[in-house]
Amino acid sequence: MSRLKFALALMLPLSAYAEPICSGLEAPDLLPGSTVTAPPEATLCSYFDAPAVLIVNTASQCGYTPQFKELEALYQRYKDQGLQVLGFPSDNFGGQEYAQAERTADVCFRNYGVTFPMFEKTVVKGPEADALFTRLAAASAPPRWNFHKFLVTSEGVTDFPSAVAPLDPKITSEIERALKPAATP
């Protein structure tokens, strides 16, 4: 991104900055059993109408799966201030996602009480990667394992490796910075 485009992005709301990330992307199906409803326009950009969006590739049978609890706590802590959390189950790392969406849904909703949007299984790396993850990787880095986190704000895309827990100050401080109201003159 050129310096001018980056400077302009800082002055625009996230939805304007996120345009290259989400433009033209169809909203993938939500996991069965989700209490979240898809927006009527069915584009992924609908979820980017927030000052901060945390995108996470998840897996139901991973050592990091307990991070669902912290992701939900993070979502509950900041959702009223404008944080959106989006979960994308993936089988790209170690074959750790169920083939059946219902089993994945049980882990997310029943076992961990997830209330943020969880989408059906998504390819997040390689030549077959979903367009969203291709764009996220181009803006920061490709996911290296399950529970890789991408924070999209008006300042750009910041990624956090799997080992960085959702409630880690590295993430929460970036979210809080993005959620601060702009200073008025």
Could you characterize what this model shows?
Strand 3 (148-153) and strand 4 form a beta hairpin. Helix content is 32%, strand content 14%. It is of the alpha+beta class and 185 residues long. The protein has a 4-stranded mixed sheet with strand order 2-1-3-4, with helices on one face. It has 7 helices and 4 strands, in the order αααβαβααββα. Mean pLDDT is 87; it is low at 1-13. The protein is globular, with a radius of gyration of 16 Å.
Uncertain residue segments: 1-13
- Tell me the total number of β-strands: 4
Number of helices: 7
Give the SSE order as H and E letters: HHHEHEHHEEH
Name the strands of the widest sheet in spatial order: 2-1-3-4
Cα shape: globular
What share of residues are in beta strands? 5-15%
Short synopsis of the structure:
The protein contains seven helices and four strands; from the N terminus they run H-H-H-E-H-E-H-H-E-E-H.
Key phrases:
185 residues; alpha+beta; single chain; disordered N terminus; four-stranded mixed sheet
Per-chain topology:
Blueprint: H1 3-11, H2 14-17, H3 19-22, E1 52-58, H4 67-78, E2 83-89, H5 101-111, H6 131-139, E3 148-153, E4 156-160, H7 169-179
Parallel strand pairs: 1-2
Antiparallel strand pairs: 1-3, 3-4
